[in-house]
## 1
Amino acid sequence: MTDEPVPPLPELPLEPTFMDLVATLFAAPMEDAETLRRQLEAYLDKVRHAAHTDDYLDIGLVERIDQALQALLAVSADRDDDDRRLIQTAARYFIHEHDALDDLSSPTGFDDDAAVVGAIARHLGLAALLPPGL
């Protein structure tokens, strides 16, 4: 995809500790939805594998986050570039293992990912795409 000028990051109701990475990912070059889907699939496989030995990982939450991201990516083609950039930011935050709360190191490692995905979906008016509990 061609690099367009990066619009300002909208204000999102997230903890400041999450926003540094959100801003960095928001400014990153755009990727197509299929590339993001493949990255999500690879990361989900990695987390499922880790869950076999780390029983504290909330695989149910991880799968709900993935479900929400897949739904957001499915509608992204019908959205404008700014919305697609936000959806990409949500996906990239999830697949960034060492974000505000290290994903695989604690039982709450995916709580920040859920917060980011939920905040972006709600900001875009797409809260109906969020599974229960997200």
## 2
Amino acid sequence: MNEINWTDKAKRYTWILPIIWMGVIFILSHQSGEESTGLSGGITGFILKFTKDIGLELDEMRFHSMIRVMGHFTEYFILGKLWHITLRFRNIPPYQAAITAFSISLGYAVFDEIHQYFIPGRACEIGDILVDAAGAGVASILGWLTGLPETKK
């Protein structure tokens, strides 16, 4: 009976997940300014309704800005982590995987902001790149410090 080696299968296919996630980021950043504001505004409104129901009043504009920053951080945290996992499955040492995952994610953040420059109602924001870098950096550092166990070749 042939046994399936799941580690080899994972090595073959893990790169698909960060590529798909990059596609999700691209789709989100390809929204017009109006669509993007509508999405984050909808999330903000939902949370503000909940907080109001429990008696907590929050400043809508400030909270909306916070939701947008958290969105950028989270998108790139996930991207950095997915690339780190992909690289570790290929037996790249933890430190090198962290640096590479961060570099790929940062490069994509720059590309993404340049892309947004050409979308109506959007802009290329250095602050967004810094938040994206923070998300990818935290994921990469955590991946390096907690890393996947060494996989057997």
## 3
Amino acid sequence: MSGEDESKVEWKTPERDKQSVSGWFVSAVIGGALIVFTFFVVGTYAQLQEREKQLNPAGPYQPQALEKAEINIVNTGLIQLDTRAYEEKNRQLQKLHEYGWVDRDAGVVHVPIEQAIDRVVSEQQRRGGGR
């Protein structure tokens, strides 16, 4: 029964405070926070600079010039395009389209591929039409 009585209680929202917050007060708090933040940033930067002087008294580190192709175990040379495969393919294609010696002592030559195909086809036709 007591649960039923509590559910019937109405809650009223409290009245708003008649006194508003001053814009100058809010601005002063934000400005003060920015000043404190700036103080800590400048202080931290000064500490880091002092610590860097302690750790590296010779001054800032200057990396080695990339004059050598390899520094320690790191290859620093520029990557160049490897064209050996293209050159070999072009040599093979050129060999397919020209005359040349396979074995000069045995008298074996190679002929252009188009002529070789024409010759094989004509021999097949002469023998009886192929397969």
